[in-house]
Amino acid sequence: MRSGSLRLRLGLAAAGLIALALALAGIGLTLIFDRVLDARTADGLDRTAKLIAGQVALAPDGAPTLPREPPDSRFSTPYGGLYWQIDRPVEAAGGATLRSRSLWDRSLGTVPNAAQEPAVGDLAGPDGGRLIAVTRRVTIPDRTGPVALAVTVAEDRRDLAQSRSTFLRLLVPSLGALFAALTLAMSLFVRRALAPFRTLRADLAAIHAGTRTRLPETFPEEVRPLVADLNRLLDAQERDLERARTGAGDMAHGLKTPLAVLDALARRTEGGHPALAAEIAEQAHAMARQVERTLARARAASGGLRRKACPVAPAVAKIAGALKRLPEGEALRWEIAVSDGLAFPGDEGDLTEILGNLLDNARKWAHRRIRVSARAEGGEAGLVLEDDGPGMSEAAIAGIARGRRWDETRPGTGFGIAIARDLAEGVGARLRLSRSELGGLKVELCWPVPAA
Fold first, then answer.
1. Is 160 in contact with 132 (CB distance < 8 Å)?
2. 83 closest CA partner among 129, 148, 114, 117
3. 67 beta partners
4. How would you class 48 by CB atoms within 10 Å of its CB: exposed for 0-12, middle for 13-18, buried for 19 or more?
5. What is the pLDDT of residue 420?
6. Average pLDDT value for residue range 182-190
7. Quick one: what percent of the chain has pLDDT higher than 90?
8. What is the pLDDT of residue 7?
9. Model pTM?
10. Residues 381-400: pLDDT tens digits?
11. DSSP letters of 146-208?
12. Tens digit of each residue's pLDDT (9 = 90 or more) over 201-228
């Protein structure tokens, strides 16, 4: 896809938005996971605090005792990452503290009082790390009266960090796979959304090729205004074409009478003033040739966008049949191989005039053979016209001037190839001249074939 492609720009924009959305989703999921992990850890610590609070007792000296420690081995491993501590306030019998072996000779402290029991917060760990801690305050009976105790259970956040890392190792590839899937889905969606424009392009190519005259009205609602405008443009172009052809015809009819009068005057004065008559006749014929060429170019320039394709084989057969009846044409061997499916991107009148000029030129110069064949390759179709006449050198072909006679020994105006070239260019075709393997001139009339 090119840099200016709408599909590329939409795809890149969609991929960027998807990446941004997934990045925000990843951040949100990580925050949610952290909150859930803290909540679940705090809930587990609170259950352990309740277990300890249910077993705690007071020794005769008032110090707290715990008949059976929690079963987790980390409580008995120095700096094992899991800690508990029972505090008796200082004002009560001088205060006392009972803690797990994992604290070694360090103390935890307690989480400040909170509005709800238990109190959850962070404390400094015995080895300098951060702990998530739960403090539950309980009251147990004693012979001197109720005694308030604070039971604190804590876990090292580094253990939680490992769980977080495991979560991220699973989250990042999952988001990457989701990004690839969503990007592919969005690419297919964009391609599907732009499908009407591909159809529109194919329909316009069909109009250029002459197989369709208007765009269909079956496009989605968002594209219909564009289609309607294009159809109005095609209608206006068709009207301009008709006006151009009408004007060309009017011009031809308007000039025919003055030229006929000049020719008649030349013949009248031929007896008394032969030089003057010859000069008048020569100028009249020159004007007629210029009018013929100008009208052909006007018809070619009015081709525009919308043309009707016409079959080539019948036109070739018709023109060749007419030329065979001429004196020079009867002695020639005409080899014609044109398929019925070949279509010219112009109307029948243009094709007839192009082929008439080209085949008539071949008839004039051929010795014995004229060959007409069809070709289709490299996205082009066309006709190849060859003769076995004297032909032309590459230098002569390169120096061809429109309206200049190539050889004064044969009759002609010198405008046949020029008119054929103008008409061909008017419908998007072109002429290529070279030497034929038959020995004479090879003329290739080629035009592009729209992609399917």
1. yes
2. 129
3. none
4. buried
5. 83
6. 92
7. 28
8. 84
9. 0.55
10. 899 999 999 887 777 766 65
11. -EEEEEEEEEEHHHHHHHHHHHHHHHHHHHHHHHHHHHHHHHHHHHHHTHHHHHHHHHHHHHH
12. 888 888 877 677 888 888 888 888 999 9
SS3 of 367-390: CCEEEEEEEEECCEEEEEEEECCC
**Confidence band of 133 (pLDDT split at 50, 70, 90):** very high
Tokens of 366: 């051929």
Q: Which of 355, 350, 362 minimizes the C-alpha distance to 318?
A: 355
Q: In terms of Cα–Cα distance, which of 208, 447, 448, 452 is closest to 307? A: 208
CA gap 361, 306 in Å, rounded: 30
Task: List the structure tokens of 187.
Answer: 């690419």
Quote the CA–CA distance of 153 and 54 in Å, as a whole number: 14
Pairing mode, if any, of strands 333-337 and 369-377?
A: parallel
Instruction: Pull the structure tokens for residue 449.
Output: 């074939």
CA 365 – CA 444 distance, rounded (Å): 17
Per residue in 327-342, pLDDT (tens digit) is 777 889 999 999 888 8
Distance CA 275, CA 278 (A): 5
The alpha-carbon radius of gyration of the chain (Å, integer) is: 49
385, burial (CB in 10 Å: exposed 0-12, middle 13-18, buried 19+)? buried
- CA atoms lying within 13 Å on the CB side of residue 41: 26
Cβ neighbourhood burial of 225 (10 Å; 0-12, 13-18, 19+):
exposed
Q: Are 287 and 280 in contact (CB under 8 A)?
A: no
- Minimal CA–CA distance to 126: which of 100, 150, 151? 100
Percent of the chain beyond pLDDT 70?
Answer: 87
Helix, strand, or coil here: 391? coil
